[in-house]
Fold this protein.
Amino acid sequence: MISSDVDIMLNEEFRQLVLRNIERDPVAVAMDKHIANASLVATQVKYLQRARHKLPRLYEAGCVIPPRAFEQSSSEESASVKAISGGALLDLTCGLGIDVMHFAKRFDRVVTLERDEALAKVVRYNFALLGIDNVEVITTSAEEYVATTTDHFDWVFADPDRRSPEGKKMVRMEDCSPDVISLMPRLREIASRVGLKLSPLFDVDEAFRLLPGSEVEVVSIGGECKELNIYTGAEKELLRVVVAGVGSWEFEPQSMRVMPTVEPLDVERAKYLIIPDVALQKGRVAIAAFKPFAQIWSNNGYAFAEALPEEVLPAKVYAIERMSRYNPKQLKREFKGVGVEVLKRDTPLSVDAVRRATRMRAGSERMVAITAIASENWIIEIKGC
């Protein structure tokens, strides 16, 4: 994104041109000789269309969306789960400003830093369109601002860049930019607490090791683990599992050490198949959550219960119609040609291999789950509750 392109995109006539073409195929827009700056208009049409669900506020306001910033941004839904608030917040990594949009509703004052002057101009323009007037966008690096500021904040927040200059994905906190671990002593001088957003691939144990005395938060949306957040300066260490649109659950860190079921599967007592949410798996607390009332052999596997608790837990639940050890020859006689939805966890068997061995086809006439327990593969016929 070059400065001259930004100057064109921040023109109101350009914005109106984009909005008039918002429902068209971007390729057709790019080829339209009657449109000034057709390529730029087509790019904005394309990314606003993609923003409908990921960034609905930006879509509705007709904001400017630079492609690279869009790809690297949080969704508005994932930004909204961060439950921090206060008087003043310093955000070290503005980007497209989606997390900042959320923080602007929860803090009286927000200062956000963006090294790229062109992107900073876009963010200021978008915030004006959105009516956000309590955010100051400063063009500087996190390192420079943190070293020189005399302000004090309730919170500092950072979503470090997890790609190297060559485009390689980075997972270790020390390899990301800015290096928050190196900055942490200074951050603790200028703020009461620090919040960090990390890759969903980041290890939960490593989070507690690097930043003891923190809350670690695992967030899932629509069955996919989206981010791992760390909040320093907690009253006590805890692991929080957040399922967007459903709820949140808190666990002691030692819950990650709860041992799985060791006894053989009790088929007679297995009335319900429970599939823990991915956030429980990522936090390694599925065993702790379900073992009090179910048999569960792995944080990544299924749980089997005779009855369900009154407490709502983040999981999908199915009634078990029957279950047996996996025997392809026997199953072929029953499932050959039948449309079957196949679920699997904790087994080396692939769905395709099961379909080939049993001659079942993809479909929704019946539903089965496959898993390995004590090195034996089981097949469970299930139905929705």
In short: Residues 38-54 form the longest helix (17 residues).
